[in-house]
């Protein structure tokens, strides 16, 4: 099952605390195995989650990089991505350069390793241009695993 949020502010948030402005906006977010009625996306250890983000830049963009972080309370930890250069990632679904006011759809797989403990976090996904300016930055509330009974 894939759940899609279209500008559903209560499920995902923009990273307003980090950026006074961005060079674009997210228009659609999809995460596999999420239930839209939950306040957090539940990701199970040992399973991969498919992530898709549609966004629209307000300006032309030559180069796009993606950064992913786990945010727990006030601690932000960068997550390793196989190909952070979106333009060079054949699986990203995006070809560069990007044209302003056109929609683009980014695809990635979030690997949830077997043995991850049960916990809550936000996944911060940030798209930046070659100069490091934010194009889009979103937070996705996540729960890893469920409590065993």
Write the layout of secondary structure elements.
Blueprint: E1 2-5, E2 13-14, E3 24-32, E4 41-43, E5 48-57, E6 64-72, E7 75-79, E8 104-111, E9 119-129, E10 134-144
Parallel strand pairs: 4-10
Antiparallel strand pairs: 1-3, 2-10, 3-5, 5-8, 6-7, 6-9, 9-10
Domain MD-2-related lipid-recognition: 12-142
Family: Belongs to the NPC2 family.
Protein name: Protein NPC2 homolog
CATH class: Mainly Beta
Structural class: mainly beta
Major beta sheet summary: 6 strands, mixed
Look at the structure and give the mean pLDDT: 87
Helix content: under 10%
Provide the β-strand percentage band: over 45%
* CATH fold field value: Immunoglobulin-like
Low-confidence stretches: 1-10
Number of strands: 10
- What is the CA-atom radius of gyration, in angstroms? 15 Å
CATH-derived architecture = Sandwich
The total tally of domains equals 1
Distance between the termini: 24 Å
**What's the tally of helices?**
0
Shape: globular
Q: Give helix and strand order, one letter per element, not per position.
A: EEEEEEEEEE
Question: What distinguishing features does this structure have?
Answer:
6-stranded mixed sheet; 0% helix; 149 residues; mainly beta; Immunoglobulin-like
In short:
With 149 residues, this protein is mostly beta strands. It has one domain (8-144): Immunoglobulin-like, CATH 2.60.40.770.
Explained architecture:
It is a single chain. This protein has 149 residues and is mainly β. It has a single domain, classed as Sandwich (Immunoglobulin-like), CATH 2.60.40.770. Helices cover 0% and strands 48% of the residues. It has no helices and ten strands. The protein has strands at residues 2-5, 13-14, 24-32, 41-43, 48-57, 64-72, 75-79, 104-111, 119-129, 134-144. Strands 2, 4, 6, 7, 9 and 10 form a six-stranded mixed β-sheet that branches. The chain has a four-stranded antiparallel β-sheet with strand order 1-3-5-8, with no helix packed on it. A hairpin with a 2-residue loop joins strand 6 and strand 7. The two termini are 24 Å apart. Residues 1-10 have low confidence and may be disordered. This is Protein NPC2 homolog. It is found in: Secreted. It holds the Pfam family E1_DerP2_DerF2. Keywords: Secreted.
């Amino acid at each position: 099952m894939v759940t899609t949020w279209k500008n559903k502010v209560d499920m995902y948030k923009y990273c307003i605390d980090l950026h006074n402005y961005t060079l674009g906006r997210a228009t659609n977010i999809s995460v596999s195995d999420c239930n839209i009625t939950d306040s957090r996306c539940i990701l199970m250890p040992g399973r991969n989650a498919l992530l898709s983000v549609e966004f629209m830049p307000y300006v032309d963009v030559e180069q796009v990089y993606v950064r992913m972080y786990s945010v727990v309370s006030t601690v932000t930890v960068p997550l390793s991505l196989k190909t952070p250069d979106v333009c060079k990632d054949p699986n990203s679904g995006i070809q560069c350069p990007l044209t302003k006011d056109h929609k683009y759809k980014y695809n990635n797989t979030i690997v949830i390793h077997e043995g991850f403990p049960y916990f809550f976090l936000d996944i911060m996904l940030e798209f930046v241009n070659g100069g490091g300016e934010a194009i889009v930055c979103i937070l996705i509330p996540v729960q890893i695993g469920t409590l065993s009974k």
